[in-house]
Structures
1.
Amino acid sequence: MELSNNDLQKMLYWMVLGRRLEEKITVLFRESRLRGHHHPGIGQEAANVGAAYGLQEKDCITLIHRGKLPELIKGMGLKDLMAGYYAKKEGIEGGRAPTGSHMYGDLSKGIIPGPGIIGSAIPLAAGVGLALDRDGNGAVVECFFGDGASNRGDFHEGLNMAAVMNLPVIFQLVNNGYAMSVSAKKSTRIQSLSDRAQAYGIPGVTVDGNDVRAVYEVTEKAIERTRNGEGPSLIECMVHRWTGHSISDADIYRTDGERLEGEKSDPIVRFKNELIDEGILTEHGCLDVEKQVADEIEESIRYCENECHDPDPSDIMRGVYASN
Amino acid sequence: MREITYIEAINEALIEEMERDEKVFIMGEDIAIGYGGGGVFGATRGLLEKFGEKRVIDTPLSESAIAGCAGGAALMGYRPIAEIMFGDFLPLTADHMVNITSKMRWVLGGHADVPIVYRTAYGAGVGAGLHHSQSLEAWFAHIPGMKVVMPSTPADAKGLLKSAIRDNDPVLFMEHKFLYKRLKGPVPEEEYLTPIGRGDVKREGEDISIIATGAMVQQALEAAKILEKEGISAEVVDPRTILPLDEEIILNSVEKTGGAVIVHEAPTTGGFGGEIAALLADKGIDFLDGPVKRVGALFCPIPSSPEMEQFYLPNADKIVKAAREILTFSAGE
Ligand SMILES: Cc1ncc(C[n+]2csc(CCOP(=O)(O)OP(=O)(O)O)c2C)c(N)n1
Ligand SMILES: [Mg+2]
């Protein structure tokens, strides 16, 4: 699909929403208004938007713990998500699961929870792909995971199985160079993790994850292949993790230089400048996007703090089995 | 005596044993630097500086390989400590523990030492949710060849970890993450070992025995205080290691008190408490004046909202209630 000006503006909106949402959530955690996990996805917006923007309603995603944009783009409501952070009854999982991390979703929108067991989503996605393949509707599943997850045995088993079964799975590896405190340089000897695709006989590409259009194009190509019955692909999006791993991480294992590396190639600044240079958006239009996003986030917080309810603890016994 | 935290006690044990025996090494994710203080929680603080990268090994995110590697190195005469960041990841290492290392000595006719300690941070109470909070000890207490250790105090944590590292069989060493920085206690300055397989009476009492493990020992002590106000004297017994289990200390206590409440943080259903209840039914039936009660978590995944989590978990009040029920029953007899 050729991206229209409207699409490009929408992509910018999503990126800005992702950034401001994560910034705001970080503040809410610091102020103890939120509790639990939070893994900021700040700086990884282009990869997430580029990867998810081309998905159709019938397509599925499996979630990663960092960054909420794929699920928002797939139709999860901002208020529902925020109420999940607030562990409210109205929230996406009603207080059960740590929304700041993983294991929430909405099957009706093709949003498959990502396990807190990093990497286990990979073979899970192969199974989703198997079902989509048998359904025969030409739908695909995009599986989001990090460089760290790619060192799990499940990565090997999941990719190999998806490959031999020719399943419609796009493996989106968001490579921010770190798994918690461990640098990817210390955990693999290859330069590009996409090289691993060769081992499974599937295409593997590495793309600049700060370039939203490049990610979109590469993903589109992979999706098209998949819809044509040519099987899975591995896409590696190179990004920076701007913050510590989580809000509990003092991030002392990186130098200041390394920590600030990401901000030099800010994907939002870059995309905004491109759109302005190309006459697709004005400076003023950019401010409008910021304003719209700020209003939406404020409204979602107001909703959580004023309108939502704490869940009834006994609700945890519901839904353990089909019979209750 | 000086008081230190549970995690400081673990850190001391690691340092002392690595200093004592150069065959001891440790491998795991984020253990060298981690969140800044050695690991995610700080258990491995200072190890990298003291022992270097060859003995303090930051691994890729590969739980199965951590457990497998520890197995291979142990067979070759090393004494690996395999750190599994969260107890919920034990299912990923279970193949090596359940199928391989625990059976290696036996299959070689007893002619192999397999000195591995699998250390893991387990347990709920910190709002970490369904994949970072579980207590899976009962799974492993079912495996011949394994040992399962669950210290409840800083002193036990240190003494038991030192024993585990010196043990020649695979040991699952379960560290309760809620206790890490929250529980301080007296720990001797001079060296000591706490034997694996021996329980400890954490509080003496006459009227009822509360047999509790891990973080539930603190809840049991809390319950004993509440019961004391009602004129009931509760004894708190901590088995400390569930495999092997100190049957004698449990039977002796129940012989004295005539009643037993068994408490663990894992769900009651299928939990290790059933094993203790069976022990009492088998060898302690003459001592019992009333039913044996088990207090554990509800039979559902662990919720992350703090209010829901507290509802899910066993606590002092639930223990007190069970104790009262037993005593009411015995009084009615
Ligand atoms: C199986 C498993 N091992 C370890 C962890 C702890 N952990 C949570 S996130 C993480 C790092 C993941 O790195 P990566 O896959 O690169 O994703 P990123 O956090 O960088 O986005 C680790 C080690 C976990 N949750 N699951
Ligand atoms: Mg990473």
2.
Amino acid sequence: MSDRYIARSSAIAARMLGGEMMIMSSVDSTFYTLNEVATVIWQAADGRTPLSEIVSALVSQFEVEPEVALRDAQQFVDDLSPHGILLVSDHPIADSSPRSAETA
Amino acid sequence: MSLVQEMNERAIELGVPLSVHLDVTYRCNERCVHCYLDHDDHGEMTTQEIKQVLDQLAEAGTFFLTLSGGEVLMRRDFFEILEYARSLRFNVRIKTNGVMIRKAEARRMVNLGVEQVQISIYSHRPDVHDAITKLPGSLKRSLEAIRFLQSQGLKVVIANVLMTANRQDHAGVQALARELGASYTLDPTITPKMDGDTSILGLRISGSDLHAVLRNPDLVGNVEEFCAPPPPPGDDIMDGYPCSAGHTAAYISPYGDVFPCVQFPLPTGNVRKQKFKEIWQDSPALHELRSIRARDLPVCSTCSHVGTCTRCPGLAYMEGNMRGPSTADCEQSFQRTGIPSANMLRKARTNASGPLIQIQAAAAI
Ligand code: SF4
Ligand code: SF4
């Protein structure tokens, strides 16, 4: 899993609301909210940062054990990728989403 | 509570304008008989101004963005605006008549991740539809647009405004929606013009037609439930606020004016003079609006319908008092349940008792 890359799909809407990320897929209008940890993973999902690096960032930011961070990241990928709002690849992915726009 | 409702609750707590309706122009290629707009261009916001407004909305936390008009595609820069809005990750819905949407436009909308397109269809009969839009061939063009959008996989909602001219055509339009794979929504309310002119209200369907619509299971689902007498309102109803307008929703005109809702022309500020967030947070009119609860409504708080009525404070405002009843909603509540509204009873009493003072010129006695 350490050599995997994740990227936000361009077919989504996203906005921060009170520390949580709201996401809506324009493909099937499914609505998601991400908690604080998932929001951090989402914001780091730029297609260039390896998942292992994202997990390390979680470990230091939330002071959790590496296994816990790894499990959270794995669950995040498993939950979101089947809906097409998160792209997963063994190689870096070109990212089209301007991160700053979502963080307001 | 659904996730979206939860987000709404949170947006209220945090004072976030979650949904904004932005009309990019009032110009239009149709001339619908019931339209409430002045179609002349009185100085629309430039592309740059609109982009700045979109930046400000993203910063204020707006998530749902409806782009509408007039006809949005009358603006040559519409796709530039749309692309910019999507780069800011708004959930974008577009309201259009579809006349200018061909295959290329449909493909661009899909590629830009538009969530939904709403197109107005008045009748399945070209003569009736085109007589309302006053644009020959418009039904054909709008239906082609729906097909282009649907074939690209974009969600289409057919909006069917009902008035005297098409009062019998909702079943035909509904069947058309089914055939095209589009959703269908019906609106029996004609609103006054933005300048307060009420002449178009004569196009509203009659009470008996409204009665039939509100008791049609194809339109309302479970009629018994829908038309049931209202339960007595509890404290939660009396402490509730009327609708999202000004609480989590706002409207911005092509000239930058900010209102609580497209149907609620209460002036609150202009984004050409002030930042949107300042208006949203500091406007005295918005503060006043937000303070109103059902128990503060002088007539409606005494009405048995208060908990179930669709009372629109914007229509009430256009009738002269945003705390007052909205006649169109009184009529709907009455036609739905058969129970007269407090407003109707009040008017009947006033009429029965006659004028307080009668004066007649001495010469006529
Ligand atoms: S009830 Fe009226 S003012 Fe409120 S959101 Fe609906 S249309 Fe707008
Ligand atoms: S029916 Fe009329 S009076 Fe009663 S709550 Fe609705 S708008 Fe107010």
